[in-house]
């Protein structure tokens, strides 16, 4: 039996501001924005290429803004992801190279924290090892994050 994570709730104070940030700055796809009742608004956003979406809204969670789990995206090109976010006005960290991957970090307008990881040995080719990929002998390919239309 498969158990697939497909939706993560992200607590925000201003749904429109958060939706704008995730769609127009980060590059997520806007899948749904529905108001089934006066008390509920459901907004589903999905990173390009991901099987898991985030959900923002009203009347969905009791958690206050800034208390969402630290979330992580994985990309094929950390430099392209960094440049995309920076060029779209996201306050993004410098690239941090660690033994288990290369990372950049950002937060949404409510302070919910995100990491973006590049795992070098995933794209290093069949003859590369984890240690050769970490030292930079592997060349990353295309980025998963793309600009929003």
Question: What is the helix tally?
Answer: 3
CATH secondary-structure class: Alpha Beta
What string gives the helices and strands in order?
A: EHEEEEHEEEH
Largest beta sheet: what is the strand line-up?
Answer: 1-4-3-2
Given the helix and strand composition, which structural class is it?
Answer: alpha/beta
- Give the end-to-end Cα distance, rounded to a whole number of Å: 37 Å
The total beta strand count reads 8
State the major sheet. Answer: 4 strands, mixed
- Which regions have little confidence, pLDDT < 50, spanning 5+ residues? 131-149
The CATH H-level superfamily is: 2,3-Dihydroxybiphenyl 1,2-Dioxygenase, domain 1
What is the alpha-carbon Rg in Å?
A: 17 Å
> Shape, please?
globular
How many domains comprise the coordinates? 1
State the helicity in percent bands: 10-25%
How would you explain this protein's 3D organization?
- With 149 residues, the protein is α/β, with parallel strands linked by helices.
- It has one domain (7-134): Roll (2,3-Dihydroxybiphenyl 1,2-Dioxygenase, domain 1).
- It is 18% helix and 31% strand.
- It is built from 3 helices and 8 strands.
- The strands form 2 sheets. Strands 1-4-3-2 form a 4-stranded mixed beta sheet, with helices on one face.
- Strand 6 (96-98) and strand 7 (101-107) form a beta hairpin.
- The longest helix has 12 residues, at 15-26.
- Residues 131-149 have low confidence and may be disordered.
